[in-house]
């Protein structure tokens, strides 16, 4: 089982192993593979907050990613076991901002992703819609669970070149 530092993100959402076709020309996990792992982690989070496949079919509600930021910390290699933990940073009636961290089997952080997600009603194009009662309750509970955790220093930082 993958271990990770619980104080950083207490909700385990996804585990995987680095596949051969995720390896790039530098011999480690390709940047697109990190995005794929974090995307699948959000899919798993959806299951935990009342937006699983059955709920999406029943309500016509889903979510879309508005923004995604990837932070690379250390390379992952083929065959390595990885796990993703999630922390809800904030949410309102239609959006949530999450912090996802990717850990190896020793609990060392390999990468992180900050994402802004939007609740949508599917149909003739996706349009923003409030969370269902069940999802709102799940997000409220998750936020309460995560409220005492410090904000990750990289959260909200964006991309910039430091000038010397």
UniProtKB/TrEMBL annotation:
<keyword id="KW-0378">Hydrolase</keyword>
<dbReference type="InterPro" id="IPR029069">
    <property type="entry name" value="HotDog_dom_sf"/>
</dbReference>
<dbReference type="Pfam" id="PF13279">
    <property type="entry name" value="4HBT_2"/>
</dbReference>
<dbReference type="GO" id="GO:0016787">
    <property type="term" value="F:hydrolase activity"/>
</dbReference>
<protein>
    <submittedName>
        <fullName>Acyl-CoA thioester hydrolase</fullName>
    </submittedName>
</protein>
């Amino acid at each position: 089982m993958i271990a990770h530092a619980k104080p950083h993100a207490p909700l385990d959402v996804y585990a995987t192993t680095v596949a051969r076709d995720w390896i790039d020309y530098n011999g480690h996990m390709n940047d697109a593979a990190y995005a794929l792992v974090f995307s699948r982690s959000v899919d798993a989070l959806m299951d935990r907050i009342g937006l699983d496949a059955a709920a999406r079919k029943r309500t016509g509600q889903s979510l879309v990613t508005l923004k995604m930021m990837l932070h690379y910390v250390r390379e992952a290699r083929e065959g390595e076991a990885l796990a993703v933990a999630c922390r809800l940073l904030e949410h309102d009636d239609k959006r949530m901002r999450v912090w996802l961290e990717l850990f190896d089997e020793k609990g060392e952080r390999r990468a992180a992703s900050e994402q802004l997600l939007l609740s949508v009603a599917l149909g003739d194009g996706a349009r923003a819609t409030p969370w269902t009662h069940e999802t709102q309750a799940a997000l409220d509970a998750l936020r309460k669970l995560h409220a005492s955790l410090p904000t990750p220093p990289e959260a909200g930082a964006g991309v910039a070149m430091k000038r010397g």
